[in-house]
Structure formats: C-alpha cells, structure tokens
Amino acid sequence: MRFTVLAGVFLVLAFAAVAAALTSGEVSARADGGTLRLVAYSTPREAYGKLIDDFKDTTAGRGTSFEQSYGASGEQARAVIAGLKADVVAFSLELDMTSLVKAGLVAKTWKQDRFGGMVTRSVVVFAVRKGNPEKIRSWADLIKPGIDVVTPNVQTSGGAKWNVMAAYGAQRKLGLSRQRSVRYLEKLYDHVVSQDKSAREALQTFLAGRGDVLLAYENEALFAQKHNQALDFVIPKATISIENPIAVVKRSGNRTTARAFISYLRTKPAQLIFGENGYRPVLRSAAKQFGFPVPPRQFTIKYLGGWANVDKRFFDPRTGIVTKIQKRKGG
Amino acid sequence: MGLATAYLSLIVLLPLAALVWHAGKAGRSGFWEAVSDPQAVSALKLTLAVSAVVCLVNAVMGTVVAWILVRDRFPGQGVVNAIIDLPFALPTIVAGLTLLALYGPNGPVGVNVAFSRTAVFLALLFVTLPFVIRTVQPVLLELDRDMEEAAASLGAGPLLTFRHIVFPNVFPAILSGVALAFARAIGEFGAVVLISGNLPFKTEVASVFIFGQIESGDAPGAAAVSVVILFISFAVLLAIGALRRLTTRHDRA
Amino acid sequence: MHRWVLRALGLSYLGVLLAAPVGLVFWRTFEHGVGPAWDAVTTPAAKHAFVVTITIAAIAVPANTIFGVICALAIVRRRFPGKGILNALVDLPLALSPVVVGLAFLLLYGRNGWFGSWLTEHGVQIVFALPGMILVTIFVSLPFVVREVVPVLHEIGTEQEQAAATLGASGFQTFRRVTLPAIRWAVGYGVVLTTARALGEFGAVSVVSGHVVGKTETMTLHVEESYQSFDYVGAYAASVVLALLAISTLLAMSLFKPKEEIR
C-alpha cells in the first residue's frame, strides 16, 4: 500500500518538475534588445560576467538579455557544430574557430578586422612552486635531470598545443634547426609526468602536488594567484604570444547586437576588465596601463607557419610530430 | 513485454546503433586502424586488467559488507548502510578529488599512489563499491534461514554453512553485482581522469583515450574503439549471465 | 569469532574506501563554518543547478523503475528467443563510457545527427536542452532496478504466484499482492541506486548539456565549474547536497521495511 503511495508521490513530483521546467524557460527571455547567446571557453567566465553587466549599461546593450555557456574550448566548438545555439563564440584557440568556419557557421572573413579577429592575448609561462625552489627560468631548465613537467594532453587541450608550439618555437627563436628543435620536444616529453585533458585540470594537478613546473597560459597562472593558490610563474625569454579569437555566428538571429557586443569588448573599458582578469589586452592603450612584461623573443604562431600548417605537421593524429613522440614514449 | 522492448529500443538501442554506424563510417580499414593503434590497445589492456581485479575485490569485499549489514548488528550500522550508495551520488569528479586529496602527494596519510596504475585501481574500486553490496543485500534478506538453522543444529560450523548453503544462493546475486561493476569499471571516466595522470601507455584508460580521439576530431575512430569495448563487455555480460542462470536454483522445496 | 573478523574486515574496507573520502567532502565543506557553505549553495547558479538536477531525476527514476520491474519480470518469468541478449543489453548502458554516451546521443539528435534535420525543422530542441539531458540520464541509470529485482525473483520462485493463479487471481492482482511485496526490498534498493546514479551523472550530461548558465547546468556540472574556479567550498558544499539527497532517498525507501518478518 505504501509502495503505491510513494510511487504516486514520485509521479506527481515528476509531473510538477516537468511543468516547472517547461515554464521556467519563458520567464527570462523577454527583453528589448533580444537575447544574446555567448558560447565561450572556460577561463574567461568571471571576466565575461562583469563585461556583460557593463555592456548592458551601454546604449547598444540596453535591454539585452544574455545566455552564457562556458566549457573547454574544443568541446564548445563541437557543441556549436552539433547544434548548440550561439550568437557570439569565443575560443582559446584559432583552430576551434576554424572548425566552425569549415562547418559553415562562421564567415571566412571573421579575421578581417583591426585586431585580426582576436579579443585577448596571453603568453605561455612556467608555473612553479612558490619561491621557485628548482630555479626554473629557461626552456633548458625544463629538461634538467629530475625535473617533472606537467602539461595537458595535446589530443584534448588547445592549451597544450600552445605549450608545445611555445617550446618548439622558442628553440627555433634561439637559433636551433628544425631537427634540433624537434629533439628538444622529445626530451621535454621525457620529463612530462601528467597529461590532463584540459589546461585547467593540469593546473589543478600541479596544485595538488604533482610535478615541479607547469606549462600554462599567463592568465591561468594569474587567475590561480588571484584565488590564493600557491604558485609563482616565470615568463621565459622566448615564448609564444597566445591569441584568443572571437566572432559572430552566421545564423545568429541577433547579428547587430552581437557585433555591437564584440565591438564593445575591444573598447578601453572592456579591455581593462580583461586586463584585471589576467588577460593581455589587444588594445594597445589598455595594455600600456597594465605593464605586462613583454618577453624579448616573443613570437606568434605566424612565425611557425600559422595554425593550419602547424596542426597538420605536429598534431595530425597519425603523422604528427608530437603524435609520434607520444607513441615512441610508450609503444 | 512489448513495452519493455519498445522502451529499451528507444532509449538504448538507437544510440548504440548510431554509434556502431558511425564506427563503420571509416570503412573496414579505418576501423581496423583505429582499433589496432598501439595506444588504443594499451589503453584497452589496462582497462580490462584493472577492471577484472576490481571485480574480484568487489565480489569478495562486497559480499563481506553485505553480510555485516544484514546479518550483523553493530552501532552505526544504519549510517554505514546509508552511505554505501554515495559513490554513485557524488559526481565522479568529486570521487577523483577526494581520493587525490587523501592518497595523493599532499595526502594526510603519507601514502601517495596518485598518477599511477594503483590510482586507477583505487578510483575504479570506489565507483563500483555499491554494486555487489546492493545486489547481495536483498537476497540475503530474502534468504530462508531455516536451512542455515538446520545445518547449525546438525553441528555444521559457520564456514561450512556458508559454503554449502548460503553461498550457492547468493552467488547469482554476486554475479549480478560483478556484471554491473565490470560494466561500470571499463567505462569509467570522471573519477579516473583526475587521479591517474592519463599518461598514454602507462595510466591512460580506454575511456580517456576515446575522449582524446573525439577531441582530435576522430569521431569515427573513437566510435570504433567504443564499439570494441562494447563487444567485449557484451561478451563478458553474456558469459556472466549464462553463469548466473546455470548456478541459480529454481526449485524451492 | 568469525563475526568479529568479518566486521573488522568489512568496516576497515569501507573506512579506507568510503568513509574517508566522504568524510573529507563533509569536512572541506564545513571547514570554514556553516555560513560560507550555505552561501555557496544558495547562489543563483547553485539553486538553478539544484532544480535542474531534481527535475531530471524526478523523471528518470520513475521511468526506469517501472521499466525495470517489467523487464525483470520478462527476463525471469518468460521464455523467449534472445533473452540472454536482452539481459546483456540491459547492462550495456553502464559499459559505455559517459563521453561515448554523450557522443551517441549527439549522433542521434544533434544538428547533423540522424534525427537532426527533422528536429530542426519542427523547432524541437533535444540536445543542449533538458530533454536530451533527461534521456541521457535515463540511459545511464537504466540497469539498476532490473539487476536488483532479477536475483530476488529467482530466489523467491514461482509457487506463490502459481498458487494465487490457481485461486483465481488475475495477473495484475497476483503482481500487486504476491510478487510486489516480495520484491519490494529489491525495488527499493534499485530505486536508491537509480536515484543516486541519476543525481551523480556527470560525463554524459556534460556532453549534451551545452553548459548554459542557469539553464542546463546540473549540480554535478556546477560542482565541476566551482572546483575549476577554485571555489572549493562551493564544489564540496554542492557535493554534500547531492550526498544528502541520495541518503534521504535511502531513508525514504527504508520506510518500506516490513515490520519484523513473520515466520
């Protein structure tokens, strides 16, 4: 008897929940400026929270309601391709934007503006224990005996790809030949002790006590420090300049506001907010205000041939240089 | 009966069919290539080996725990019973987190098994904890004590009683639990991914490898390896099911 | 004597594997006091996540319970070709890694999936919305009730049901009065496991949810997000909520405890 009663209660709850779920969707969406759906990678969540609030105070943004989604860059890109509704997309890696272009969701011309389609920048740094007990300052230090390196897995993490290209490019910048630079990568991978699936997870692994040094984005290291995590970081003399792309989605029903939002993100006030959150502004006047140290031998992915090229050469699942290194390590 | 099939088809078969179809997309050679990839094979071997050991431990310890929960009386028993299912309710990431915090480099106990195969074993043991316990408990509860009491009155020691009377009756339930545990262990992702370090060829399990394939854009390859795992677990589950049918007593005196 | 050995063995096993981790979760939650923990779980994001999780469980659990009992009866009491396969099929959802489950559902209901174009045409959103998350949760928590009930059905045998039938009871009456009471423990445990699983589902839901803040984030996703943002108290506090939900399900089920067995 009690069984049936409970079963009945369950069903009633179920129906109530369904009703609640179906109706709750309606409440948020009505606003003058329409709804803007932002799909972004995971790390700038806090920054965008503030930016969205400020945008709503501008004339262009008044009355707009936002839906935000944050997740690992590659996963978000795939979600959008698989049908996740979006008006503005922001990724950590250009390759993810390219996959959307290939799927016909973003115009081929997305890069053709003053900022090359980017909205924030950063650099690859060495995150070390407080006080840098192992005195890690250069790429050569990473392959010293006994040094354990943490970096995410290139198969799953865009951040990992930035790390690897920073390592390779730094060797090239320092004058090594292509071959010797690849040898460096091999030696580096001999020191890798953990390959988490995302940059943030690699950071967590490092903070949990694993490894002596973590290859990370500068903004990640700053974010961790902001949240009182125990780490320091060193900007190597030669490192890659990370650029994070942003674009309007072609099928967006709210293109005007989307474009206005992206324009807003490149204004000084917005770029300052990015700066406060550890990102290097793309707007020069804002960047000056923060005094981010510029590595003497900084280079971009263009120096290495651009992402399309690099992705094929290094990360092709069958013939990629790094893929082969990983296989050699284990097989 | 028809209802069950319809429900099952809609919910389970359709996604499986989509998966299998996608796995075939790369053609026969593509499928074979994806599946014979050394990294894939290594991940599969690790997954199957650790899962098997985990199932063994679960079979034994799960029965022990079920026993003390049903047949024993001790203070705090209710609390213990209540927390058995927590490995399920807690998101897998929390499982990984806490195991890492306890038995990792900064752990209070001085034991560090993180980022190793032991870590994989530990994580899988945690997430499969409730299975055997919860399948054996109801059977132990329903078990007719008369035979045990008769045996005892005839002078049989507890071990003998267990071996000849209790065990044959709970064995099918243990197998049920083991089947569930095995299936869960080979597919586990969240708990393992945090604590194992995911080093290819060393501590990378099949699910993490598959995830890597999906992320690198090789969805058909990922589907291919998933289908292989599916077949293996299907075969194991069929075998366990057959064993269970063989050892189940149907007649009640 | 053997009683003590078993007790010691069982409890120390649970201590290392279960009590310590769970204890840590509770400790980390209340480390800084109840106030911060409460604040952490009453943020708008956390509250939304709670509603989403409950909604999903409230649909998935009853569905799988009803199906589970029907399926268990079919497996144990009927003979039909392919029974062994049905049996194994029921356990399969567990064998699939959650990421693969998500992938499979995307392959079905995603924009480029089998039903993708039909769904887009009719404006129905399955993936990246609640329906997809519910389906996925049903999928992963499918086996439990079946698996709990099957061994017990075997154990109790059919004589009582046969007796009822010869006395003139209809199928449904027999079910309600003879079978159901006998399997209530099993169903109860099955429901507890199913609920716990539905509450704790992370991987597959993560793939099909779209992570839309305030709309498609479950408590588990919220836990991950909090943890990633170094909001440890938030992550652990949300986990405590999940744990309490699971425990209260068990307590609710134990309401079925038959008052001392009459022999």
Outline of the structure:
By secondary structure, chain B is mostly helical. Chain B is built from 13 helices and no strands. By secondary structure, chain C is mainly α.
Descriptive overview:
Chain A is an alpha/beta fold. Chain A has two domains: 30-120 and 243-290, D-Maltodextrin-Binding Protein, domain 2 (3-Layer(aba) Sandwich), CATH 3.40.190.10; 122-241 and 295-330, Periplasmic binding protein-like II (D-Maltodextrin-Binding Protein, domain 2). Helices cover 47% and strands 17% of the residues of chain A. Chain A is built from 14 helices and eleven strands. Chain A is globular and about 60 Å long. Chain A starts with a helix and ends with a helix. Chain B is mostly helical. Chain B has a single domain (2-247), classed as MetI-like (MetI-like fold), CATH 1.10.3720. Chain B starts with a helix and ends in a 6-residue tail after the last helix. The mean pLDDT of chain B is 84. Chain C has two domains: 1-30; 33-256, MetI-like fold. The two termini of chain C are 28 Å apart. The chains are: A alpha/beta (331), B mainly alpha (253), C mainly alpha (263). The A-B interface holds A 74-75, 78, 99, 153, 155-157, 192-197, 201, 204-205, 208-210, 315, 317, 326-327, 329-331 and B 38-39, 42, 100-101, 104-106, 114-115, 193-194, 197-202, 208, 211-218, 221.
Written as H for each helix and E for each strand, in order along the chain, the element string of chain A is HEHEHEHEHEHHEHEHEEHHEHEHH
CATH topology of the largest domain in chain A: D-Maltodextrin-Binding Protein, domain 2
Q: Could you describe the largest sheet of chain A, including whether it forms a barrel?
A: 11 strands, mixed
Mean pLDDT of chain A: 88
Principal-axes shape call of chain B: globular
- Which spans of chain B have pLDDT < 50 for at least 5 consecutive residues? none
Strand content of chain A: 15-25%
CATH class type of the largest domain in chain A: Alpha Beta
CATH-level-2 architecture of chain B: Orthogonal Bundle
Largest interface: B-C, 96 and 94 residues
